Amino acid sequence: MKCKVMVSLLSLLLAAGAARAEQIGSVDTVFKMFGPDHKIVVEAFDDPDVKNVTCYISRAKTGGIKGGLGLAEDTADAAISCQQVGPVEVSEKIAAGKAEGEVVFRKRTSLVFKKLQVVRFYDKQRHTLVYLSYSDKIVDGSPKNALSAVPIMPWK
């Protein structure tokens, strides 16, 4: 019982402050006789601190019996593309450079220890927001990563 409570609390803490994703679609990559197929899932989330910037993430989702039960560990493969979808409004903490390397999205990719994260950086010199997606694990993470940049310019 204590373990379930600890896992629930850990999950809530990991999700705090990060954006929630909306699934846009998916494609099956491997047929599984039992349980859901392996797939690539496409999700979208809006940057919680930057109005009118939406990021799209494609990531591997493990199927099979373990995947169907939420016990499988997804691979670290992911891609990201962030877009300006209207007039960008950057919060004061970002413009002042106080939000350097801020996690804007976090998704659990294993039962407890592994997660996919998106970190936002502000390149003040080039007036650009840079989004880095990567997977980490308590013991060892993955060097696999993807990058997207959104120049901050007037919307036309």
Automatic annotation (TrEMBL):
InterPro entries: Uncharacterised_CreA. One of its GO terms (cellular component) is cytosol. The keyword Ion transport does not apply. The keyword Signal applies. It holds the Pfam family CreA. Keywords: Signal. This is Protein CreA. It comes from Tenebrionibacter intestinalis.
